[in-house]
Specification:
224 residues, alpha/beta, 4-stranded antiparallel β-sheet, 12 strands
Length: 224
């Protein structure tokens, strides 16, 4: 599992992002400021860092400087509302690999993390899932059946992966809506039902796979 060190001083945002990343299959350690994050980094090295820029005690730029003194290769993504050209340039000069503007969509952040870690052995190991006779490649976003592959959208791929990783358990509708459609005010519960129906059609060549609608609660994937 990919280990993320996430540094953010705003508690409510940190909780939402942490929960969403964990629902996407990542392990997340959250720190509220730079000094604590630096100690955490030294104690247990993560696979990638997500760093807010504006923080008390030690800001994100200073933290990144200290990190780069210790490790020149670990990927660093800045998450910040500061998007003036000078700030972006400074971030990259300090060794950042990417710069994500707040507010952001979780799916955008996940794609950027996957892109930076695409050559990681952990990512290569975890990207393929066997779902009955199907193979889901969540990095390439493809679903294959006996060698025949179809291309999925990001949301289709990630939702199918989440349902499978929580197989035989109900995944609440509210959690799905919050994780994948939190910024889309036009996406409704009815829209989600249609979306799930489309995923069922992708999987209809293997009768052992079922996605059950638990009325008013959520969905459960099972493989007999």
């Amino acid at each position: 599992m990919i280990d993320i060190l996430y540094v953010e001083d705003e508690p409510s945002l940190a909780l939402i992002v942490t929960d969403s990343l964990e629902m996407n299959g990542f392990s997340v350690r959250h720190c509220q400021e730079g000094q604590t994050a630096l100690r955490s980094f030294e104690k247990e090295k993560p696979d990638i860092l997500l760093i807010d820029v504006m923080m008390p005690v030690m800001d994100g730029f200073t933290l990144a400087t200290h990190i780069r003194e210790r490790d020149s290769k670990i990927p660093i993504i800045f998450l910040t509302a500061r998007v003036q050209t000078d700030d972006v340039v400074k971030g990259f000069h300090l060794g950042a690999n990417d710069y994500v503007k707040k507010p952001f969509r979780i799916e955008e952040l996940v794609v950027r993390i996957q892109s930076l870690l695409k050559n990681s052995p952990k990512m290569q190991f975890s990207q393929n899932l066997m779902i009955g006779d199907y193979v889901l490649d969540s990095l390439k976003q493809t679903l294959s059946y006996h060698g025949e592959a179809i291309k999925l959208s990001y949301r289709e791929s990630e939702l199918l992966r989440s349902l499978y990783e929580n197989r035989n358990q109900v995944v609440p509708r509210e959690d799905i809506m919050k994780t994948y459609w939190s910024y889309d005010k036009y996406f409704s519960g009815r829209s989600l039902d249609v979306f799930i129906s489309r995923i069922r059609k992708y999987l209809n060549k293997d009768a052992r796979i079922k996605i059950t609608n638990i009325r008013g609660i959520g969905y459960m994937l099972s493989v007999d």
